[in-house]
Amino acid sequence: MKNMExxxxxxxxxxxxxxxxxxxxxxxxxxxxxxxxxxxxxxxxAEACAxxxxxxxxxxxxxPGFDLKARHVIHAVGPVWHGGDSGEDEALAxxxxxSIALADEHGLTSIAxxxxxxxxxxxxxxxxxxxxxxxxxxxxAEHPKVETVIFCCFDDVSAKRHEEALTxxxxxx
Length: 173
Fold this sequence. Notes:
The protein is an alpha/beta fold.
């Protein structure tokens, strides 16, 4: 049974097949969730990312999880917010779709996402939550191996925002 759920907590502590890193295009250790994932995974993650090189906005790459409970890290590069008229919505949706497709390709059944692009990249959080839920729901329907999508929210405000987006999406199904 396919499942989407909201969890509040630290994404680096989740025991899932893959966690998604809100990565930068260079796949380099950064701040926010990216920095937390790199610190928890250990220095091997940065080495694996350096071997891959870069990743364009909207796309995703996969590495081992190293010291994380998650067996893999999927690095998705979200868009920087430029006001909404520069393809940001589609690029953000592509992060979720491409991450789920990559998980399916690697035979993974569970994947956890942070709120991609809502930190330093400035994407409006309410809008991002609705796009995340919609894109993940569509991708789940297309990728049979992936059974569970978790939206891991750092605080209660983000969790509430994602719960509201998920409830609204389910009503439309």
